[in-house]
Amino acid sequence: MTINEVFGLRNQGRKEEAYEAARVIYATDKSPYASTAMFWTAVDMLKMRVGEDQMEEAKKIYMALERLLTNMKDEKGWMHDAMKKCLALMERGNNRERLLEEGPQHLQMGIWGEELAVAYLREKGYVILERDWHSTHRDIDIIARQGERIVFVEVKTRRNRDFADPIQAINYQKRKNLRLAINHYLHYRKIDNPWRFDVITVVGEMGSKMPEINHIEDFNIIDSPKRRYYR
Predict the structure, then answer these.
(1) How far is the C-alpha of 52 from the C-alpha of 152, rounded, in Å?
(2) pTM recorded for the entire structure
(3) Is there a contact between 190 and 11 (Cβ–Cβ < 8 Å)?
(4) CB within 10 Å: which end of the chain, N or C, has fewer?
């Protein structure tokens, strides 16, 4: 495995494979190029661990990144920027845990629904790449990989369907924001893999052992908001 191949795996979204390959190379090669591969693949792993709520593991990776950065040149400041973003991501992960325990009830419901959606996707064999990915004021709840395909997921959680189906919350403005956020992510990560947009709805009382989970694959975010999507 070469360093170019490591970056190739990373660009394909195969981040865990890229990380393990970078570790093997870095064990015997501490050159700047190998160190760079080690740094960026470790950043990817930190983000994945935060997404998996493995905050202690994410903290260990962050500390290893700090040690790695002391021996590297960062003339353009990209690595220090990445460290700041990692720290902010860890803080959001910790905040998510606190909100689930102490936050307002509507936020607790949303976090509970996202946790169920993540568990559902993992059970189906998806690899979770990102959670709560932000593009300015726009966000994507979950970014996952299914084989070679990148899957962007919006999660909607409701106690019941008394007033409206949760899918109706994805209105015209929400679809527009999602398109912009997805385009930003694809451009930012330099991803040319096939992709799709899914919606997962969760209906039930928080803590329920049998919530209703509905996974709508390939949800259309381009057509008129008047169109309804059910499967």
Answers:
(1) 16
(2) 0.62
(3) yes
(4) C
